[in-house]
Amino acid sequence: MEKSCSLLVHFDNGTPALANEIKEALEGNDVPAKIDAMKNAIMLLLNGETLPQLFITIVRYVLPSEDHTVQKLLLLYLEIIDKTDGKGRVLPEMILICQNLRNNLQHPNEYIRGVTLRFLCRLNEVEIIEPLIPSIMSNLEHRHPYVRKNAILAVMSIYKLPQGEQLLVDAPETIERFLSTEQDPSAKRNAFLMLFNCAQDRAINYLLTNVDRVPDWGELMQMVVLELIRKVCRTNKGEKGKYIKIIISLLNAPSAAVVYECAGTLVSLSSAPTAIRAAASTYCQLLLSQSDNNVKLILLDRLNELKSSHKDILVDMIMDILRALSSPNLDIQRKTLDIVLELITPRNVNEVVLNLKKEVMKTQSGELEKNGEYRQMLIQAIHSCAIKFPEVASIVVHLLMDFLGDNNVASAMDVVIFVREIIETNPKLRVSIVTRLLDTFYQIRAARVCACSLWIIGEYCLSLSEVENGISTIKQCLGDLPFFSISEEEEAADSTKKPQVTNSTTISSKRPAILADGTYATQSAASETAFSPPTVVQGSLATGNLRSLLLTGDFFLGAVVASTLTKLVLRLEEVQPSKVEVNKASTSALLIMVSILQLGQSSVLPHPIDNDSYDRIVLCIRLLCNTEDAVKTIWLKSCHEKFVQMLLDKQLRETEEIKAKAQISHLQPDDLIDFYHLKSRKGMSQLELEDEVQDDLKRATGEFVKDADDANKLNRIVQLTGFSDPVYAEAYVTVHQYDIVLDVTVINRTKQTLQNLCLELATMGDLKLVERPQNYTLAPESSKQIKANIKVSSTETGVIFGNIVYETSNVLERTVVVLNDIHIDIMDYISPAVCGDAAFKTMWAEFEWENKVAINTIITDEKEFLDHIIKSTNMKCLTSP
């Protein structure tokens, strides 16, 4: 079995040193060789070897060494080796060790004294410790603080042993006297820690007599004081008042660690608004003063916890929290925005949105590499503010529309979706948004953003001038028709069908050709080869974005162009009195659609037009050739009504999610209610009075009662042994993300005492046991809770198996009870979650998710089958029903 040791040593199993080689090196006079040999011996012992032959060699050749490293390694060796026999009696050869330890405790060098005292903290054998007690106590008065602080730790660990109180009867009094005279901060801290652990009343007494000096104590000491206050107040809630003053005085300490601990202690002890406000403002100050990103993330987590129970207090600090956006780290920015968005109220929304607007403008500088991602987060944050409070949309919508042509497609897509939602929810902004969109449309470079913008143009251009501008903008962005030039061969074929014009003069037919840079040049047909294939007409460099996207073969966008033009022409019929103008617009729209179809069926592009887009464009052509009122209603009204319905569904889903997150509180009808106004208030501080009110409120609203999912808990209990076994065991399995905790209950069902009872566990798969549970003695018919931690390195299915081993007094050999296997299933790692459409699409693009799985099922309804999958895989459906 592996041994435990206070030192972690990396050990390469490949080349273990042989015991004989170690022995030779130890017997020599070469100090570096001796050090290596000691290290090898320690490594072998830690890995389960026994090496009994080395003990005498070490006593003879290593004990007398004066080298500090050798002495340190000797103490590590002594820590690991077995000091008792099978029956628990100390081995006789340990007397040799005892004499050496006494010499070390009286050594002139303070380092040797200090490490020896440190070693004694890890000794449990009373027979070895007892003769050393006078030497240990004398070290409390040594001139060097290093020795004194280690002597206190040794006294504390000896006092904690089962017979410690008999060995050191007056230790607490001695340490208390020591504490009143000691000047060194770390020795003082250790002394206070000893009183805190071994004689709590003395520690409290010392603290209360020195209340005014607490702010001047060192950082280490202040941390122990806070720990003591937490412990005392948990056991005796009535004494909170005495200590909260100390905590508040420590909020101004120079050490960031102490201030952070103070804030945490305040929150855990008091729910009074004054205390919570002090803690929250402390977290905000630390958030700005600390440069470490991990510290900032932890502070944001603390603020997030406060937000769930004290939202109203944090609302006043929203601008302080927003200042954390100055950090360049995306995780910090994301967390800050998440907290802020839940603290927005009608009172502070304008200020927050203006702040976010400034941050968006900063991202235009392009100094940081992740500006695009940060801008996207800001746009999403502004979007959610504008949905909750539509009146702020006017402040930001025009600024954000400048980013429609952003190179980061995701952030441009967020902007266009935001605009689409705002134009519906804020009718006042419709005219200005449409005008701005038509002005900036030519800057848009992404097909998806173009498609969404075209939909907005088709849906919200309502007046005559807007419709005409919409049609002309689309025409400009498509450039001149056709999209490709026909080859000479086809021209010749065409010309045979036409009446030929003869003239005595030779006419060289001039037609445009495209140069390498995309501009036109005139070229005579005679100089071209007889058979040139059809070539794409790129247009000049100023030609619009729609043309360049169509020439990459994006016919879905072509279909969107066709349906937008159809909507605009149908609307023109309603708003334009002149039929001539309507026919003109309709003809040019038909020409554009036919040109797109021609491009799709030509050999110019590698892929022909897809069937869906083809059908859609043909439908638009038919519609413009023959318009009916019923069809008009569908195109101009029904589509819009469906969009409004979609927005309402989305809002409903979001409110349901917020409700689900809110704390559910339960209260029993016979629970006691204290009437605050009828209570005696003698000797209570303002903070305690506030606390009383808060506790009553919580009791009345049932916030104290956390409703545990008991039925779910019972499902996680695994029976490990049979009912007829002498030892019955069952485990409650808890799976956290990378940890599995087994809480094993072991019951002795015999009439005998079971000695050295040990739960031996082993794992298969990517699981690793963190620590081996220790040995226990179990009285007849008694039970014991044993905890085992297991680390998970991947979400594969794994198995935990093992035995319970024990001895009884009348049987010499050990008895083994084999346990049932515990199967850790991948389902334990999956919990339902929510994810936005854009984030989902990004993840879908990054990973290879799709795997085809053959399904054998008797379910015939898709909805029922989807519900079945969601239930059995413990997932959540992202789209609304």
From TrEMBL:
Subunit note: Oligomeric complex that consists of at least the alpha, beta, beta', gamma, delta, epsilon and zeta subunits.
What membrane topology term does the record carry? Answer: Peripheral membrane protein
Keyword Protein transport on entry: yes
**Which function does this protein serve?**
The coatomer is a cytosolic protein complex that binds to dilysine motifs and reversibly associates with Golgi non-clathrin-coated vesicles, which further mediate biosynthetic protein transport from the ER, via the Golgi up to the trans Golgi network. Coatomer complex is required for budding from Golgi membranes, and is essential for the retrograde Golgi-to-ER transport of dilysine-tagged proteins.
Q: Domain Clathrin/coatomer adaptor adaptin-like N-terminal, which positions?
A: 21-469
Q: What is this protein called?
A: Coatomer subunit beta
Q: Which UniProt keywords apply?
A: Cytoplasm, Cytoplasmic vesicle, ER-Golgi transport, Golgi apparatus, Membrane, Protein transport, Repeat, Transport
Q: What is its main location?
A: cytoplasm
Residue span(s) of domain Coatomer beta subunit C-terminal: 669-807
What PANTHER family does this protein's entry cite? COATOMER SUBUNIT BETA
Q: Which Gene3D superfamilies match?
A: Leucine-rich Repeat Variant (1.25.10.10)
Q: Record's GO cellular component, any one?
A: COPI vesicle coat
Q: Which GO terms describe its biological process?
A: endoplasmic reticulum to Golgi vesicle-mediated transport; intra-Golgi vesicle-mediated transport; intracellular protein transport
Question: Pfam families from the xrefs?
Answer: Adaptin_N (PF01602), Coatamer_beta_C (PF07718), Coatomer_b_Cpla (PF14806)
Where is it localised? Cytoplasm; Golgi apparatus membrane; Cytoplasmic vesicle, COPI-coated vesicle membrane
Q: Which GO terms describe its molecular function?
A: structural molecule activity
Provenance organism: Olea europaea subsp. europaea
The major lineage groups are: Eukaryota, Viridiplantae, Streptophyta, Embryophyta, Tracheophyta
- Ranges for domain Coatomer beta subunit appendage platform come to 813-879
